[in-house]
Amino acid sequence: MIPLSWYLIFAAILFCIGLYGVLVRKSAIAILMGIELMLNSVNINLISFWRYRSPDGIAGQAFAIIVFAVAAAEVAVGLALIISIYRRRNSVVADDMNLLKW
Amino acid sequence: MSAEQIIFLIVALVTLVAAFSVVTSRNLIHAALWLILTLFGVAIFYVLLDAGFFAVIQVIIYIGAIAILFIFAAMLTRRVMQDTGPQTNRNWWLGALIALFLFAGIALMLVNWQGFNTSAPELANSGGRISQLGLALVSPDQYVLPFELASILLVAAMIGAIFVAGEKKS
Question: Which domains does chain A have, with CATH numbers?
Fold first, then answer.
């Protein structure tokens, strides 16, 4: 039987890898990929807490489904924004998107 | 060491290597393919956690829709895809340091928590869990409000994505 700690440590490592990707990548698409990794690790945490702490309840699964829906919406809007920016400025590098900077 | 644990360790190793390749590989298409492998690993974790329904929707939504959207976006912005310069910004060491500190903090907090090493309790009704979840999502005294909010959010995101990315005809 797998103890709960293995899942939690795995999810923590996955979250930190995703955070590293968000912080250091130049391309905005790669930053969104890092966000997907972080959302996945959160989902593993939610499902494993549901399985190990309250398998009779339904809250963990309901939360995970909402996270799925939010991730799908987030990536659709994010990639649409990136494509729109690419059309205007010919770049997807996050450092180049400085119209609001002063 | 039981068979489940060996499967867990192999899948965890493959998933973490794939996730690390997602954030380090230079070519965005390669990063998207590594992302697909990572998402498959997470789907296997859902199976190990007795949540087969989530493994299925992980494959359908994440791999079938989101990863394909990433590949689309990487191909539509193709000129920068084969960028020869470094793919990380100047402060990559700071990012790595922050990630390491965050992991150390989470690990410290988890080790001090007394429920850390619990093993899984027996599942009561293995057959009716999906129908129970479906009923909970539409019953008014449970999760019907978040469920409807999620559907409104998805419609808004779809309309917004079409509006933002669509060609403006002047």
Answer: 4-96 (1.10.287.3510)
CA distance B44 to chain A (A): 11
C-alpha B67 chain-centroid distance: 10
pLDDT in tens, B99-119: 899 999 988 888 888 777 777
Give the integer Cα–Cα distance in Å for B167 and A73. Answer: 20
ipTM of the predicted assembly exceeds 0.95: no
User: CATH classification of B1-80 is 1.20.120.1200, yes or no?
Assistant: yes
Are B89 and A24 an interchain contact pair (Cβ–Cβ within 8 Å)? yes
pTM of the model as a whole: 0.89
Q: Which among A33, A63, A89, A97 is the top mutation candidate for probing chain B, defined by the most B β-carbons within 10 Å of its own β-carbon?
A: A33
Is the CB of residue A67 less than 8 Å from the CB of residue A39? yes
Q: How far is CA A94 from the centre of its chain?
A: 17
Taking the C-alpha atoms of residue A11 and residue A45, their distance in angstroms, rounded to an integer, is 6
- Residues 49 through 108 of chain B touching chain A, CB cutoff 8 Å: 49-51, 54, 57, 61-62, 65-66, 69-70, 72-74, 76-77, 79-80, 83, 86-89, 91-92, 94-96, 98-100, 102-103, 106-107
CB contact under 8 A, A23 and B94: yes
Sign of the four-CA dihedral B131, B3, B108, A21: negative
Q: Which of A1, A22, A29, A49 would you mutate first to test chain B, the one with the most B CBs within 10 A?
A: A29
